[in-house]
Amino acid sequence: MTGRSHVLIGIASVVAACAEGWLAVSPFVLIGGVFGSLLPDIDTERSTLGHRCKWVARPIGRMFGHRGATHSGLLLGLAVVCLVYFGGAARLHGGWGALCLGYASHIVADMPTGGVPLLYPVSKSRISLWPYARTGGIGEFLLLLCTLTGLFGLAWWSGHNVPIRQGSGIHIQCGLSF
Question: Which PROSITE patterns does the entry mention (predicted)?
Answer without folding.
Answer: PROKAR_LIPOPROTEIN
